[in-house]
Amino acid sequence: MTGVGGFTQTIDWLAFTLPKAEVADVIALIGGDWFQSESGFRGYPVAQLMTQGKTGVGKLGTGAPRNPKEVHVDLSAGIVSQWDEAKLKNVLAWIFSQKGHVTRIDVALDDREASVAVETVRLAVEAGQVVSRSKQFKVIQASNHREGVRTGETLYFGSRESQTMLRVYDKRLELQAKGREDAALYGVRWELEFKQDRAQACAKALLTLDPEDWRAFLVGVLRSYVDFRETTREAESYEKYRAPLVSWWKALTEGFMRCRLVVERIQQRLDDVAAWLANAISPMLAVVVACRGDQFLMEMIYAGTKRWTQKHYALLKQRRKGTPYVLHLKPRT
Q1: What's the distance, Cα to Cα, between the start and end of the chain in Å?
Q2: How confident is the model at residue 2 (pLDDT cuts 50, 70, 90)?
Q3: Residues 20-56 as b or e (16 or more Cβ within 10 Å = b)
Q4: Nearest Cα to 93, choosing from 207, 262, 214?
């Protein structure tokens, strides 16, 4: 992500349902280390989970009585935003080849230089300059109650129940509050959330259109949902649609027409892994040790070192001085 500027786009969420599929095939397609969940997911009694970094969460559900072979998958931004275009299109193509349906896809359009502040957008709405199919508009402010300072605000156009919703917020401030070292690379994010039929249409467009037509498609969808024009709330509908675009909106959408799909490179931190291990795994780990003893745990850890990949070696660089690089443990014979 070094040196990223201007306008970019990322895929920020992907969910899909397959009418009939083998769980092993789905997991092989997505990748990652999955484990069985103790509870179900979205009404599916059998579920598996996968985590990636601090924010990447994958959930897979199957075994519903109405259709035991049906599989539903939810993948958060921490997973799909790190896929390159080839991986993304390969997954979408496979979903459609299995007669699957994309039930949600989020596309984030990033104004990396924050050329249009969130406040500018809010003031335009308050002045009646927005022309939108959605009547609902909501502002949620965030603050640090310990320090008594505001950390940003998010503008919502539409509702969570509708097939399209738009969020506008300062991604830079959000990441700064989370302590992300790469926060300065971000600006204001315009995030489109598509569900059901609109998610399916968006996914098919992403798969079949060339990059230039895909960008035109996205900007067209954005402008058909919200448009900012030199008008007032009291103007007649036909006057609003004929009014010229406000200058900042014209420049912003032209910028989005040039945006490129980028791959997020989120560096996993050792502290995050340790926290996840303590919260998600330690209860079951304690059960295993209670039943099989410490030696079994040490053998399992030793076996795990044989499966280290590049991401594991990257985490090892964060280890404290004096700790061993590899466990020198011989399993029982």
Answers
A1: 48
A2: very low
A3: ebebeebbeebeeebeeeeeebeebebbbbbbbbbbb
A4: 207
Quick: pLDDT tens for 188-245. Answer: 999 999 999 999 999 999 999 999 999 999 999 999 999 999 999 999 988 999 999 9
pTM for this entry: 0.79
pLDDT tier for residue 173 given thresholds of 50, 70 and 90: confident
Helix (H) or strand (E) holding 58: strand 56-64
Q: Which tokens hold the place of 67?
A: 């259709």
Element (H, E) at 173: helix 171-177
Phi-psi category of 27—alpha, beta or left, where left has phi over 0 and alpha has psi -120 to 50?
A: alpha
One-letter amino acid at 212 equals E
* DSSP codes joined into one string, 252-308: HHHHHTT-EE--------HHHHHHHIIIIIHHHHHHHHHHH-HHHHHHHHHHHHTT-
Phi first, then psi, for residue 216 (nearest 5°) are: -65, -40
pLDDT higher at 25 or 277: 25
